[in-house]
């Protein structure tokens, strides 16, 4: 069973530097047999993560994200 590191990102400003840091944290966690899950991500952060092609790599905790736009 993998360890899980949950990170509350509700109070962070979404920008490319943050997403880069989160991606590096996920990579380091994977090397140690751990996974990162992001909690309470803003719509802007989710959109930026998706735009940067990292939605699958950065675990967004189910049920804690803003509603998807249609």
- Secondary-structure element sequence? EHEHE
Identify the overall geometry: globular
Q: What is the helix content? A: 25-40%
Number of spatially distinct domains: 1
Poorly predicted parts? none
Distance between the termini: 36 Å
- Biggest beta sheet attributes: 3 strands, parallel
Structural class, by secondary structure, is alpha/beta
- Classify the oligomer: single chain
The count of strands amounts to 3
User: Over the alpha carbons, how many angstroms does the gyration radius reach?
Assistant: 12 Å
Beta-strand content? 15-25%
Average residue pLDDT = 87
How many DSSP helices?
A: 2
Q: Name the strands of the widest sheet in spatial order.
A: 1-2-3
Describe, in plain words, how this protein is organized in 3D.
By secondary structure, this protein is α/β, with parallel strands linked by helices. It has one domain (3-60). It is built from two helices and three strands, in the order βαβαβ. The protein has a three-stranded parallel sheet, covered by helices on one side. α1 (16-31) links the parallel β1 and β2 (34-39). The chain is globular, with a radius of gyration of 12 Å. The termini are far apart. The model has no long low-confidence stretch (mean pLDDT 87).
Offer a concise description of the structure:
Helix content is 36%, strand content 20%. The chain contains two helices and three strands, in the order βαβαβ. A three-stranded parallel sheet has the order 1-2-3, covered by helices on one side.
């Amino acid at each position: 069973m993998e360890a899980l590191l949950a990170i509350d990102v509700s109070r962070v400003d979404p920008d490319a530097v943050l997403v880069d840091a989160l991606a590096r944290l996920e990579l380091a966690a994977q090397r140690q047999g751990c996974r990162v899950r992001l909690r309470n991500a803003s719509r802007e952060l989710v959109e930026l993560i998706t735009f940067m092609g990292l939605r699958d790599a950065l675990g967004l905790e189910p049920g804690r994200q803003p509603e998807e736009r249609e």
